[in-house]
Amino acid sequence: KIPDFIANSSGNGGNNGNRNKTVYGDNDFNTGFKDKDGSSLKVDIPKMNGNNYNQWAQTVRLVLDGKGKLGFLTGAIAEPAQGDPLHKQWKSENSMIIAWLVSTMETGIGKPYMFLPSAKDVWEAVKETYSDIQNASQIFGLNSKLWHAKQGDRNVTAYYNELLTLWQVLDLCYDDNWKCAEDSVLFLKRQENDRVFMFLAGLNKDLDEVRGRVLGKVPFPSLRETFAEIKREEARQGIMMGKTPRSYESEGSALATRNPYKGKKSDEVPRCDYCNREWHTREDCWKLKGKPPNWTPNWKKKKGGRAYLRKRSINRKKTQVLEKSMNKNHHHVA
């Protein structure tokens, strides 16, 4: 599961004075980071539009944690007492973070939060309003995509990345607080095993052998280890069998008059992952999408051909009879 950062990167564990000294001082707040060589990394924050809270919130956490300011959102960096020498600086930092948070939202969404007293208040108010945690509709939609995900015409990496992205978004829909750390570890291991099964189930049949090897391993491999092994097998097949990445153009019909797969080796023949038949893909599957409007049954074509041959045979016989008759008349006249 994507970790939900709950403390800032400064490791604020001491008294308020020490904590404030480690956090304050970076008044030039922005989303840029500089490496030792002076090169900068710009982090793009997705504008919060009301439908992408999870993605927005995770990016905000990462940026603020990287700047040592996440404690302003979690409450770990508490407001110093009035009269404390650091109170003014805390207020300045707090206002700067509020302004930045509002700037990462669309105008109509961020405007109401400008008048809240602290960055923590803004953070919690936005979460209560837009969080997708336990959103049954979104959770169902994500799971539905996962259940139907197949490798199809894609390579293994593209298929794996699709699943990985869906799993990460799904994890953000939950906010589980485990009372027992051991139970949490056991649950996460079982969850990872289930995801390995789902990944393996959607692979194409030409990877059956390596799929069997993975399922027979003890101890059972992690998701990343499984992907690495499947990827190596895909690369091996590409080298040993001369396979190329799957990319078959749709002809609009599984039985097009010009067969684009004619002359291909058996291991290069496309297979539909919907009806499990060869010589076409899901995009061309009649069972899934129906027959094209201009399709003509084979028996009609054959019937038309037989009628043409029969008519041609009859005409030939008539010609032969006529020739014989003319020859007789010619001999009689002579």
Automatic annotation (TrEMBL):
Domain of life: Eukaryota
Domain Retrotransposon Copia-like N-terminal: 46-81
Xref: InterPro entries: Copia-like_N
Disordered: annotated segments: 1-23, 243-262
Xref: Pfam families: Retrotran_gag_3
Entry protein name: Retrotransposon Copia-like N-terminal domain-containing protein
